[in-house]
Write a structure and sequence with these properties.
The chain is an alpha/beta fold. Helix content is about 35%, strand content about 10%. It has seven helices and six strands, in the order H-E-H-E-E-H-H-E-E-E-H-H-H. Strands 1, 2, 3, 4, 5 and 6 form a six-stranded mixed sheet that branches. Strand 5 and strand 6 form a beta hairpin. It binds zinc ion (ZN).
Length: about 220
Amino acid sequence: MSISSKAQATVIKRKVKPVIILASDQKLTNSITARYQKTLKYIEDWYHYWISKGRTTKSFSFSNILSVKSSLNSKHWVYLSDISAMGPNRFDLFYEAQKVLERNNYNNPNEIYLGMIYAGEFTENKLGAASARRCAIIPPQSKQECVEFSSNNSPQIPSLVADCVYAAAHELGHCFGLGHTCDDYKNDSQCGNSFMQQGRPPNMTMLTQEIDRLRAKSEWFY
Ligand SMILES: [Zn+2]
């Protein structure tokens, strides 16, 4: 790598691409997009909060929300989510969602995608969040609205949307190269509260070691 391209890499502000994967029988409305937007803003602000703690490093942003139509209907997506609770089918929903992104050419190895499956309005969250390499997928979520992130990191947040924030932040964490906290930092008594373990907002944290590892990824954390 030449000096100039290295210097450039440290200032490029990389954006994660959020893509709503729409079930074939659903229509995307402004209010659905706005709800996702609020959740993404919370995730973005939460990452910024931890990454910039006492440092000058900033964190990735999300680009505008994209959307793609899938050929599977809502029932099928919910079925895939339900069977993800069974070991052998754990990643069926992920693979289907990843295929939809790839078919729409959202498979650039230099990008990170967050696929969000929309299959109707639910009063609960569905299962099946997963990630591999540059692709994170979250299953259909409840219609709970996300709150705004606050600078003291402790807004009251409805529990279902807290789970959704956790799922997306966690899967993206894998895309950024992190493993599970209590595997990687066994001796840290706080490992369980990390977003890469079981931490949920408003008590979801990031260990200093994780911050340092993310900061080393200069393209996304700059
Ligand atoms: Zn994980």
